Amino acid sequence: MSLRPLFPETRLRRLRYSKVVRNMVAETSLSVDNLIMPLFVCPGENVQNPIKSMPGNNQLSVDMLVKKCGELLESGVKSVLLFGIPESKDEDGTVAAHEHGIVQKATRAIKETYPEMYIIADICNCEYTTHGHCGTIVDGDVDNDQTLVTLAAQAVSLAEAGVDMVAPSDMMDGRIGYMRKALDENCFEKMPIMAYSAKYASGFYGPFRDAADSAPKFGDRSTYQMDPRNSDEAIREVEMDIAEGADIVMVKPAMSYLDVIYRVKNEFNIPVAAYNVSGEFSMVKAAEANDWIDGKRVMMEIMTSIRRAGADIIITYHAKEVADILNGRM
Ligand code: PBG
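Structure for Delta-aminolevulinic acid dehydratase, as requested:
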């Protein structure tokens, strides 16, 4: 027997040869329970308006939205995040707080057919204002404190319509505390708040603004959303939101901000959500359509990376596809 030459002392590959062992030692898990699917609801009946920049996603009228919820439940996706495209808009977005507003209607309809569907309402004014900004404009900019009033009214109105959770995405200072108080005073003390805490002024929201018809008509959102260069500031935002009563904090977008997710998860003992936003979704779909990447594989890798970074919850337009893969249906 001849002696073999120098060996590596450590062979990490030993645990990679068998799929059984790879699964046994996997550090990150992904389940349909982690997923939330965003949906866009619009006026009309039997409307299924394809969103060109987000293949497979549609603006849905209430009846079609209910159908969609049935399909999602079938795949095991138990929660949706609703965005409304209203019939008409106004200066300060108060249409969002009408008893018969589009998301209020959608909520009642979903709950009638699928009471088990967990409904989260995005709370923001940008889909409801004529100018497309997230709040009331005073002297050419969004006024923080006036906007708190309309946001709280929107949250209470949606709570009355039957949503299970509210998710303020406006980035005004003090909105969580203000909204918590408004909800509590209206006997919704059990309603959780998922705060878009570290929400960046991002180019990745482009396709969403087509989907929700919410692009600002002047300027941009950099006076209220966060500067992509900052992460200490994200910690301060999260800290503030927790102190004001947030039950879940969110980092958004996800892929370019995995470091922020990681920091937030390590710094605070609170559930963390990550929003895998429209532009992140559309990039995968575009590259897949060109046969440049294996779309499904990349999608699962992205989901895994967001979980590995520390997110408990992933809000994603891929939710149904991911669920179908996890269920072995795709
Ligand atoms: C509303 C809101 C936006 C998104 C979620 N809520 C748009 C924005 O801030 O411009 C983006 C979601 C996505 O891109 O998927 N404020």
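The mean pLDDT is 96.
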